[in-house]
Design a protein that fits this description.
This protein is an alpha/beta fold. It has one domain: Alpha-Beta Barrel (TIM Barrel), CATH 3.20.20. The protein is 39% helix and 14% strand. It has an eight-stranded parallel sheet with strand order 3-2-1-8-7-6-5-4. α5 packs across α7. It is globular and about 50 Å long.
C-alpha cells in the first residue's frame, strides 16, 4: 500500500522537486567503488521523504547514477542532476489494479502510452512500466488475450522509438491481492504471444520469492524475457541483509552470468527510524549487490 500512496503524491505534479537539498539527509559516507558488473538503481517511492532533487544527490554521493519509477514531469530534474531514469511511468493515470487485462481500460491506457513513448525517447530513456491489473474473477486465458490485444496497439510505436514496455510481476499472496501477473510463467507466456523484442518482464525478486521461490533457476531459464529487476528483503520487504531469507550476491551473480546489461533497482522499505540511517541502508544494499 505504501507504493500506491507514494504514486498518488508523486504524480500530483512536480511541485517541490526543485527544493534545495535538506541538510542532514545525505550521508557523509564516501562514495562506493563499484565493480561495474551490475548497473544499480533505486526506486523513487521508497525514499519519498526526499524530494527528487535530494534523492539525485544521495544517488550521486553513494556512487551510482539511476533512479527507477519517475514520470515525465521529473525528467528535467534528473537531467539537471546527471541521473538516468532506468524505469519510467507514463504522464497519465498510473494504476496497479486497473490494467491491460481488461478491455474497458484499453482506450485510456493506449492514449497514455502513445503520449508517453515519444516523451521517454526524447529524454533518452528506454524503459516504460506497465501492469495487468487485478483479476476480479477473470481467468488466466482471457486476461492473457486481453493483454495481447491491448499491448499490440502500442508496441509498433515502442519498437519504432526504441522503448521497451515492461510488465511488472507482483505477488498476490501478501502485497497485491488478486493481481493477475503473479507468476513468472504467466508473464513468459504473454511475452511469447506478443513476440516483440520491445516487450519484457520486470522480474521483481521480492515478489517472485513470495509467489513461487526458485529465483535463481527461474532467472537462468527465462532471462531472455526479463528486462529489469527489483530487489527487497523477504519477509517484510525491508533491507536485504542477514535478517532475510534471500542471498542477493548469489542472485546478482546469476543475473550477471546471463549477460544482462540492464539495471537492478533497490525497492526495499527501510526499517530505520532516522532518515540518515535509511540512506546508509541504501548504500549497504548497493554494496551487497555489487558483485
Amino acid at each position: 500500500m505504501r507504493r500506491r500512496s507514494a504514486l498518488r503524491s508523486m504524480l500530483a505534479g512536480a511541485a517541490g522537486l526543485s527544493l534545495p537539498v535538506a541538510q542532514g539527509f545525505i550521508s557523509p559516507l564516501e562514495p562506493t567503488r563499484l565493480k561495474g558488473n551490475i548497473r544499480h538503481s533505486v526506486c523513487s517511492w521508497t525514499f519519498d521523504f526526499l524530494s527528487l532533487v535530494e534523492l539525485c544527490q544521495v544517488v550521486k554521493q553513494i556512487g551510482f547514477s539511476a533512479i527507477d519509477l519517475v514520470a515525465p514531469g521529473g525528467f528535467k530534474v534528473l537531467q539537471e542532476n546527471g541521473i538516468h531514469c532506468s524505469m519510467c511511468y507514463t504522464a497519465g493515470k498510473v494504476s496497479l489494479t486497473e490494467g491491460w487485462n481488461r478491455t474497458d481500460h484499453h482506450e485510456w491506457l493506449i492514449k497514455d502510452y502513445l503520449v508517453a513513448i515519444p516523451l521517454i525517447a526524447k529524454a533518452g530513456y528506454n524503459n516504460l512500466i506497465c501492469f495487468t491489473g487485478n483479476r476480479n474473477g477473470m481467468d488466466d486465458e482471457t486476461g492473457l488475450q486481453n493483454c495481447v490485444n491491448g499491448l499490440q496497439q502500442i508496441l509498433p510505436a515502442a519498437e519504432k522509438a526504441g522503448i521497451t514496455i515492461q510488465l511488472e510481476l507482483f505477488n498476490s499472496k501478501v502485497d497485491h491481492k488478486d493481481y493477475m501477473a503473479d507468476r513468472s510463467a504467466w508473464g513468459v507466456e504473454l511475452c511469447k504471444r506478443l513476440g516483440s523484442p520491445n516487450f519484457k518482464l520486470l522480474y521483481d525478486i521480492y515478489h517472485m520469492q513470495i509467489s513461487e521461490g526458485d529465483v535463481i533457476r527461474t532467472i537462468q531459464d527465462n532471462h531472455q524475457y526479463f528486462g529489469h529487476y527489483h530487489t527487497a528483503g523477504v519477509p517484510g520487504r525491508h533491507e536485504i541483509d542477514e535478517t532475510q531469507e534471500l542471498f542477493y550476491p548469489a542472485i546478482m551473480r546469476a543475473i550477471h552470468q546471463t549477460g544482462y546489461q540492464g539495471y537492478v533497482a533497490q525497492e526495499f522499505i527501510s526499517r530505520q527510524k532516522k532518515n540518515a540511517d535509511k540512506i546508509t541502508s541504501l548504500k549497504k544494499a548497493i554494496q551487497h549487490c555489487d558483485i
